[in-house]
Amino acid sequence: MTEARRGIRGWSAARRKVQSRIRFTSLRLRLVVVFGLVALTAAVSASGIAYWLNREAVQTRAQNAALNDFEREMQSHVSTLRPNPTQEQLRVAARRMAEGGERSSVLLVAEGADGRTVTGSSTDNSLDGFSLEDVPASLQKAVNKRQKITSGNRHAYHVYWQRVIDGDTPYLVGGAKMIGGGPTGYVRKSLASEAKDLNSLAWSLGIATGLSLIGSALLAQAAATTVLKPVQRLGVAARRLGEGKLDTRLRVSGTDELADLSRTFNLAAESLEKKVDDMSAREEASRRFVADMSHELRTPLTAITAVTEVLEEELDADTGSLDPMIEPAVRLVVSETRRLNDLVENLMEVTRFDAGTARLVLDDVDIADQITACIDARAWLDAVELDAERGIMANLDPRRLDVIMANLIGNALKHGGSPVRVSVREEGEDLVIDVQDHGPGIPEDVLPHVFDRFYKASASRPRSEGSGLGLSIALENAHIHGGEITAANSPKGGAVFTLRLPRDAAPLIAQERDDGDTEDTEGDVQ
User: With a threshold of 0.90, does the pTM exceed it?
Assistant: First the structure.
């Protein structure tokens, strides 16, 4: 059973460690994601701007070079043509212009001698030829439109251009008309090489963006480790402090915010340890005072009890040796002596619980026989109904179970009245005992305080027959078994006290012993 307990505790510790690591990884993941998003945004923005600027520069450079060549070739070859040239003359001039340019096609358009439009192209009439149908109508209109001569415009015709896409290939189409009624020329230059360069640039920028994202993730991982490792140590220290290890301290290094946080934690832990030590010292002094007082009271109480027993025997013998006038006083002294004796015994028991010196003496008992013996010893057989099957065995402390049942049944008889019903049942590995009376029940405002020491439900009735410690002692005895006692009101009337105990308290003792050994070997967080 001890090995099983150790295995369960080890599994629980491993589960807590994994859960802590999951939470730690989650925070780390959030930091990495934030770093990644920032780096991705910066990289995409920079790459987009760089691509746009390079794209404009490449296209503008190619466009200007093509148009300048076209304008120069127009002046060199077209200006020498006679009016109303033939188609062959236009074709020859167009070929010469194309040979002087760079990967471009030229188309010349003029008015023939018969008044019809004559065209000449530098390319053959094939599928990739350049004809007037390949020139956008808007560009033709702009090229052939005569501009008004002004001080700011000294020429009637200008060079115009337009970018078009034929299939998947981008082209630059430009055109100009010779001044004085000469031919109109058009040029078409392929921008495929520039587009290919821009695609290569886009791929390069994309790869650079991906590499920057990976680099930022690695940097974020390193930064998260640097930041979260002290936070993890702080979390471990806080858990140890919460477990009562008040000497836990953090090792402080550096002057950053995390170092200040560690210093603040150490100061808080030191202050808390000092206050707890002071409170423990005062509590220990209080316990020692109560224990010493209880022990000191037992000696005179023993003598007083002996005298009161003699007086009580005289009263019961009815020999007439006592004056009838003092008989009530003698009975009061006997009653109060018993009450004082019970109070001293209860105080000593409470002192043992507070000092942590109470121990279990386990034995295998039949629950029904144990409760019957408790009832019989106090002459409650006529006032208590027991509903318990024989043979329900439990490994617990018989004396402490007797104390619990005596307090619960006695409290029910005193405040609820008879008959008091005691029922026993099994729920899994637990033993459940219900003690129900038939009284008025417990007021709702009193229920949370029924187990408090010396609690009085009414301030106008400060004195009672009991010590005010019975239910508190019963609860402590249940706790030392690893059990619990709850109080409630029954729907049918009356109060119900429910005692729940494990059927075997031996593993609890072994666990307390192992926890004590483990606590001795644990060190501080550094």
Answer: no
